[in-house]
Amino acid sequence: MLSLGAASGLLTVVLGALSAHALGERLDADQLTAVKTALAYQGFHALALALAGLIEHQSPSPWTGAAGGLFFAGTLLFCGGIYVKVIGALGLVGPVIPVGGSAFMAGWLCLLAAGWRLGRSP
């Protein structure tokens, strides 16, 4: 999970630079706003995925494993869906974007459960 979080963080920077420099003139204002939203969520959840990996390394739990998987799925579905929708590669990705958002929320609930479990451990 730590490595996936780091890779996602790296990809966030690469995609941010690409959108700012190579695509900035090709995208309209709404598309740029959508890409910036996806980049913000991807960057934030890259850190959350890395955090879940660190917690899992110190105190393995099904909750942190689930959180990491859900953060990764959310990044693919929510952020990836927005990127694909903006470049117009697939017109049918719209329905997966909310599923990705739900995965993010479920990931945070799992991380909350992991933290609660850690707080109760002797």
Describe this structure in words.
It is built from four helices and no strands. The protein is mostly helical and 122 residues long. It has one domain (2-120). Helix 1 runs antiparallel to helix 2 (29-58), helix 2 (29-58) runs antiparallel to helix 3 (62-87) and helix 3 (62-87) packs antiparallel against helix 4 (96-120). The mean pLDDT is 91.
The averaged pLDDT comes out at 91
Compute the number of strand runs: 0
- Percentage of residues assigned to helices: over 70%
- DSSP strand content: under 5%
Provide the low-confidence segments as ranges.
none
Radius of gyration: 16 Å
Q: What is the H/E string? A: HHHH
Secondary structure class reads mainly alpha
- How many separate helices? 4
- N-to-C CA distance: 26 Å
Outline of this structure?
With about 120 residues, the protein is an all-alpha fold.
Notable features of this structure?
4 helices; mainly alpha
Architecture blueprint of SSEs:
Elements: H1 2-21, H2 29-58, H3 62-87, H4 96-120
Helix pairs in contact: 1-2, 2-3, 3-4
